[in-house]
Amino acid sequence: MNKSTSTQTNPIIYVAMAADLLHAGHINILKFARELADSNNGKVVVGLLTDSAIAQADEAPFLDYEQRKIVLENLTLIDSIIPQESFSYKDNLAKIKPQFIVHGDDWQSGYLSKYRKEVLDFLHAHYPQDLEDKSTHPALVEIPYSSQINALGIKKAMNSLGISTAMRQARLKKLLTLKKPLRILESHSALSALIAQNVYVLKNGVRVEFDGFWSSSLTDSTLRGKPDIEALDLTNRLQSINEIFEVTTKSLIYDADTGGRVEHFIFSVKTLERLGVSAVIIEDKTGLKKNSLLGNEVAQSQESIEEFCAKITAGKRAQVTSDFMIIARIESLILDKGQDDALKRAFAYIEAGADGIMIHSRQKSPSEILSFLRAFRAKDSTTPIVLVPTSFNAITATELADAGANIIIYANHALRASFVAMQEVAQGILEHDRSLEIESKCMSVKEILSLIPGTI
Ligand code: SPV
Ligand code: MG
């Protein structure tokens, strides 16, 4: 690139990056930008992706914005650093009007290509070059991407080492500040948790994945052939969480039913916290607990506000770290007690120390949940709200987040799906008296043998 393409006296050379795991590929790009700046009397400006920009499209970064900024500030290759609030370059391009943009050539296809197009559109509009091919511009400089070393690869390798108990536990609270909504999938075994850990889809250039696991009392009980009435003891459930934690890195929210007696709940809090669980949800029911989706079809009673507040406060006093969260679940709508009761309880529970509120509903329509969110958010804009849209399943997580929710839990779908699949195959074998016909409904033997690293 020489001066002839330059139309600014001191052009800005813009490089956007997350720089969470700084590696040779980054230095390569920055070195190139520096040379371009030096030969054009320009400046290298880095658009450093903010924590929420990274979290929206990926996992939360290992290092936060300020830590990453300190690392970059000490590189002589860079003149200044500005935040880039999303993967889109648009805002910063409009703000600083760079003349050159440097990026690895890996964004020519795939989900990043739409951001590349934004950059090209900007360059064509501001620095017309009369180029026939609008998919190129001399001021977009693309450096051959190093496939041997890249952030995703390093991250994969780091994740395969596992995660410390403290880091996993703290991650949920951190993610709540960076991303909305958080999507949580019920995981009842290490294998189902591996699915929740690894599955993702690309939507409009953004990677959407689950942010953690839900340890459900319903599915943990059903899996063991027991009713969802607090019949399973904590030790039993901790066993599967331990197995889940052995092979994953995401955070877990624990369904503790009513939390039991206050005297017992404080021990549960300590145990869950020690294991690395991020949050516990307790529901304001008393007596023999039945599943909420049964509503008033079965006898269920709600705890008094005073008693439930005392349980929350005792739990908060028992925890050791500041990262562990106790979330209070309100059953007023489930038990037809109305919105006023639900709101009164929500504010009382927060006053007692609850870190978040879960409001549950068994209606097909989300209207009572949406009106609760409106009334609650009019008074409290910050306390995290958790929803479990099993019944009101036509509304999307994004719509619920837009209405004020923070965490959306898909509470039983993994187990429900696996039951249907297993039942069909079991029946099929009996019907055909052999397994040939149901082979297509199963993963291949080759696949199962290569699913778990180390098997072969
Ligand atoms: C669970 O998953 O066990 C729950 C959510 O508590 S619900 O089944 O909807 O009550
Ligand atoms: Mg439950």
TrEMBL record:
Regions annotated as coiled coil: none
Keyword line: Isomerase, Pyruvate
Signal peptide span: none
Pfam families documented for this protein: CTP_transf_like (PF01467), PEP_mutase (PF13714)
GO terms, molecular function: phosphoenolpyruvate mutase activity
The keyword Isomerase is annotated on this UniProt entry: yes
Family from the record: Belongs to the isocitrate lyase/PEP mutase superfamily. PEP mutase family.
PANTHER family reported for this sequence: PHOSPHOENOLPYRUVATE CARBOXYLASE (PTHR42905), PHOSPHOENOLPYRUVATE PHOSPHOMUTASE (PTHR42905:SF7)
Protein name stated in the entry: phosphoenolpyruvate mutase
Naturally occurring in which organism (per UniProt): Helicobacter fennelliae MRY12-0050
Organism lineage: Bacteria, Pseudomonadati, Campylobacterota, Epsilonproteobacteria, Campylobacterales
